[in-house]
Write a sequence for this structure.
């Protein structure tokens, strides 16, 4: 069964540092998303990406966050200057069309110290 | 605003017993409804989804869910729980008119006792 691959699985970073989280979507999927889950809390939508541009973003997705698909395969989430409250599990999700449902990656656990 | 309520934070059932996890959504437009399962430290695995048609949907691992528009509910059921079903279960809703994002419930942690 096709998978969404996320790297790294864990990342520890100093506050104020930049991090890049990477996702390899399923090859025929067109819609890409980032979600996050702070420990013990619900999964929250960050951003959706379609046709090489952001289609929607949440209030969480401020100027410190950016997404891109630099080489047509990887889909990245960059946090420019991490804060302690950015510590969370970040999930990439993709789908090929609304009727097919999402496939989620296994997540990147980000710890900001 | 769209929201999803999972009223049970924790549920404990005996192995072999039946299970029902509750989910209610807030908005009356045509929802797209999902159940995901998450084992500790793992990603989210899709159990089943409802878009239209038959309101009783079958999923993987023997799970099923029933969409009841009159009750704004999409409860997940399994007739006989196995110890490997212990995990956290998330209900999620999406609406075409609100983009393709999903809104998740807070999750229900299922414990299975032998």
């Amino acid at each position: 069964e096709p998978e969404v691959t996320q790297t790294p699985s864990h990342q520890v970073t100093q506050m104020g540092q930049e991090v890049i989280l990477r996702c390899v979507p399923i090859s025929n999927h067109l819609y890409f998303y980032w979600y996050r889950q702070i420990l013990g809390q619900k999964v929250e939508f960050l951003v959706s990406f379609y046709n090489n541009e952001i289609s929607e973003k949440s209030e969480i997705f401020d100027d410190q966050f950016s997404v891109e698909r630099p080489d047509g395969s990887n889909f990245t989430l960059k946090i420019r200057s991490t804060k302690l409250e950015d510590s969370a599990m970040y999930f990439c999700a993709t789908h090929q069309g609304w009727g097919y449902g999402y496939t989620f990656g296994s997540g990147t656990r980000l710890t900001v110290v | 605003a769209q929201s999803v309520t999972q009223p049970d934070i924790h549920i404990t059932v005996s192995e072999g017993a039946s299970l029902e996890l509750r989910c209610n959504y807030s908005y009356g437009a045509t929802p797209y409804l999902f159940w995901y399962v998450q084992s500790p430290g793992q990603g989210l695995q899709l159990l089943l989804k409802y878009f239209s048609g038959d309101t009783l949907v079958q999923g993987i691992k023997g799970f099923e869910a029933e969409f009841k528009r009159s009750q704004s509910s999409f409860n997940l059921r399994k007739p006989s729980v196995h110890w490997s079903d212990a995990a956290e279960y998330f209900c999620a809703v999406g609406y075409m008119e609100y983009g393709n994002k999903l809104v998740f419930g807070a999750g229900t942690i299922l414990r299975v006792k032998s």
Summary: The interface with chain B takes residues 31, 33, 35, 41-45, 48, 55-56, 58, 91, 93, 95, 98-99, 101-107, 109 of chain A (CB under 8 Å). Chain A has a mean pLDDT of 92. Residues 2 and 21 of chain A are 20 Å apart (CA to CA).
